[in-house]
Specification:
about 110 residues; about 60% helix; binds heme C
Length: about 110
């Protein structure tokens, strides 16, 4: 019986953590409007000084935005934008940009 209780607790904890990081593509699209001026509306920037975000790995985008926010990665422009983003915003934006056609990343073998 104890083992079943244990499994139920583990499942419940997992459910909570999955839910709290659930990425919302449509919310990401709406939140990406402020990024469009530099990165393009779908993340395909036409200006070389602004990196393309379209098709980038989601984990890379999440990591970059957290790094700007924490100050680990320094850039005057992006730090300003990232400071105002919540974990959920970062999740949604990264979901949206990673799903756009753009960068073709060759998978490592
Ligand atoms: C005013 C222009 C501007 C706006 C608006 C802007 N960015 Fe950026 N972004 C930049 C620049 C410039 C860089 C490159 C900074 C660097 O060298 O680290 C960058 C870099 C990034 C990177 C890292 C890309 C990489 O390849 O490492 C991410 C992710 C990113 N921006 C996401 C966003 C998101 C999400 C938004 C909207 C919330 C946004 N940016 C709004 C100018 C902008």
């Amino acid at each position: 019986m104890r083992i079943i209780q244990f499994i139920v607790v583990i499942l419940a904890v997992n459910l909570i953590s999955i839910e709290s990081t659930f990425a919302d593509y449509e919310a990401g699209r709406a939140k990406a409007e402020v990024c469009a001026a530099c990165h393009g509306s779908d993340g395909n920037s036409q200006i070389s000084m602004y990196p393309k975000l379209a098709g980038q790995y989601k984990s890379y985008l999440i990591n970059s935005l957290h790094s700007y926010k924490s100050g680990e990665r320094k850039n005057a422009i992006m730090s300003g934008f990232a400071t105002g983003l919540s974990d959920q915003d970062i999740e949604d934006l990264s979901e949206y940009f990673s799903k756009q056609n753009g960068l073709k990343v060759i998978p490592m073998k």
